Structure formats: structure tokens, C-alpha cells
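Hello, quick one for you while I still have it in my head. Could you read through the record and tell me how the C-alpha cells relate to the sequence? No rush at all, and the record is pasted right below.
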Amino acid sequence: MTQKNNHKTTITHEEINELPLGAFEGKVIVLSEEKNVTRIFAEINKHTVVGFDTETKPVFVRGHQNKVSLMQIALPDTVFLVRLNHTGMQPAIIHFLENENILKAGVALRDDIKGLQRLKHYTPAGFVELAEMSKKAGLEVESVKKLTALLLGFRISKSAQTSNWEAETFNEKQISYAATDAWVCLEIYKNLSARLV
């Protein structure tokens, strides 16, 4: 799906609501066992650019803070949902986060990086902030929702955003939401890269 209005620099909520709903339709692998981490990250490390996001169980009490429980990594046809509250911050995960040769494209990455550093300290490298790329490309939108609508021509559902990311098992809505959020980051990166050539 490509957006026809390439000259547009912004998009309204009304325009977004008129777009068809889109979601990631490839393979989603939920990684919750420590023993599989090294093998899966060996697969991820073959790629030079990935879509990236994290999820944290929402807090409804002022002053309380939950830890990041999920890290999403999108390859073109597969999204890995890494359940950090099950796997812990394994050496392979730290290596990935510190690898400057793998570009990790996402939005509001500073929060993701900080949240992950609360689990275990690491030196972040290779993170690409899509909001900054968007500005360089002359666009006036920064959120994942608006960038997706403007650049990819569809809207994404945010209804599962505030669900329980520490649940024993994820429901289909959570899996689709988490996978889609990381995948669109990869697609937005490709689109903005082409504009910035």
C-alpha cells in the first residue's frame, strides 16, 4: 500500500479515520524462553535494518513505574516479540542493542532506550529516530500513527496499547498490535530513506 499524496507534509485525524485499517500479516514469533534467545538473535543479526519498539504494562497509580516487558523487532517478513520479563536481558540482547551495524528504527526511542537501561545497563548504538528523519524529509508528523497514515496509506489500531503486557499469554489483538507497531517502523524507515536520498 503506497500513499498517493507524496506532496503532503501532514495529515488530519479525519483523514486518518478514512483510511483502511492495516496490520502486519507475516510471521510473528513470540520469544519467551531464555534458551532460544541466542539462536533467534543470530537470525536478527543478519539484517542491517530492523523496526524497533517496546511495550510496558500501563500504570494507573501516580509515581509507580513498571519495567519494560516486551521488545518488538521487525524484519521484512517476520516480527519477533521478545518477552523480556521472561527471558531477561541476555548477552545476545545486549549485543544487539549495542551493535551499531544494525539500524534499529523507531519513534520516541529515547523512552525505549531508557526503559531498557533500567533492566540492564548497556551503551545504545545504531538507533534511528524516525521523528528526526521525518523532519529532515520536510514532514510535519512525528507519531507512528500519523507517519503510517501519511507515508504508507493505512491506519493502525492502537486499541491494545494499554493492555497488560505482563499477561501470562498474549491475545491475538496484542500480538497483532505489537507486531504491527514494529513492522510499520521498518516500512516508514524505508520510505523516509528513499525521500532523503
